[in-house]
Design brief:
Radius of gyration: 30 Å
Helix content: 25-40%
Number of strands: 17
Number of helices: 6
Order of helices and strands: HEEHHEEEEEEEEEEEHEEHEEH
Strand order of the largest sheet: 2-11-10-6-7
Low-confidence stretches: 195-209, 319-328
Distance between the termini: 51 Å
């Protein structure tokens, strides 16, 4: 069995592709007849037997013409992949249960259009694309996610049956792809702020002492912070301005593992925390995240949201997070 696995790795180039871009050479392309191709060959054999039996010269000519057509189709199927250049792109993070899309940039250096190129992972949906002559195109290969964590989809199969469907040519691609899969969010009410925090926390106030400037108003800003004098000097089409303050006690919301129900399983608790992160981000709140063995400082914005979601996605994968401690 180890010898067979080694032979398969050598024959089908199953090792990850280290060199980019990936160029499909002759050794990387495999081709076999399809069911239609096998039926086509069987029909030609029957016709040949009949032509020989009845000594039909026109029958021989027709058979050789159709056989030549099949050989030309085989060559075109092979050349539809030969020399193609592929470069993997960056994979955006997704939530568990959603489709992850793995992008590929295709480059055609030939003067012939490449048609009906099918990309798919094992057991997944297929994406098809046509590549113009001496042109470029992009394709996103879908993969249905099921659980959180770091996803390695394995190798992708590039196949084609163009032009007649008599032959199938394919090649295996294995870029070093990786996708972060966030836990599936469970939406529940945000935990109450700690008693030391002001009630205005969820409205995004960063302090109440020193005036720090003006900024465009957002829907979560209270009306008492609108700079009415500045608004009076602006046109109706421009957004209202609100006052920013610095100094004083910064208001913070902590999303902690201990605040989730202890009877819930670890995955459900992570899903609840994911829902809290999304809700806090939508409320433009300043929030931090506390997990067993890991803590993210209070922050705000898209980068902080991505850091918190990634911490939830990878929780328990490193050694210091292998054991999820239940807290009351």
């Amino acid at each position: 069995m180890p010898a067979l696995a080694s032979f398969q790795r050598w024959l089908f180039r199953l090792a990850p592709d280290e060199q980019l871009p990936i160029v499909l050479s002759q050794r990387r392309i495999f081709i076999v007849p399809t069911r239609a191709g096998i039926l086509y060959a069987v029909v030609l054999m029957v016709m040949l037997i009949g032509a020989i039996n009845y000594n039909l010269s026109l029958g021989h000519a027709l058979i050789f013409l159709l056989a030549g057509l099949g050989i030309v189709a085989m060559v075109h199927t092979f050349h539809n992949l030969f020399g193609l250049r592929l470069t993997p792109g960056r994979v955006p993070a997704v939530f568990a249960g959603d489709l992850a899309h793995f992008p590929l940039q295709l480059e055609n250096t030939r003067r012939q259009t490449r048609r009906a190129l099918d990309f798919s992972f094992a057991g997944q949906a297929t994406s098809s694309v046509d590549l113009p002559a001496e042109g470029r195109a992009s394709v996103a290969v879908p993969f249905a996610t099921q659980r959180r964590g770091r996803l390695d989809p394995g190798r992708v199969t590039l196949a084609t049956r163009y032009p007649l469907g008599l032959f199938r040519a394919w090649s295996y691609l294995h870029p070093r792809w990786s996708c972060i899969v966030y836990p599936r969010p469970i939406r529940t009410a945000l935990p109450a702020p700690s008693p030391t925090m002001h009630a205005d926390h969820l409205h995004g106030d960063n302090g109440q002492e020193d005036f720090a400037g003006l900024r465009p108003r957002q829907l979560s800003d209270p009306t008492r912070h609108i700079a009415w004098k500045a608004v009076a000097r602006r046109s109706d089409e421009q957004p209202h301005l609100v006052k920013q303050f610095a100094g004083g006690a910064a208001e913070e919301l902590w999303l902690a593992w201990s605040l989730t129900a202890s009877e819930d399983g670890p995955e459900e608790r992570l899903s609840i925390l994911t829902g809290w992160v999304l809700s806090a981000d939508e409320a433009q709140a300043r929030y931090g995240l506390k997990l067993p063995g890991k803590q993210l400082a209070v922050g705000q914005g898209e980068a902080h949201r991505a850091s918190c979601l990634q911490a939830l996605a990878l929780h328990g994968e490193s050694g210091d997070q292998a054991e999820s401690t239940r807290q009351a």
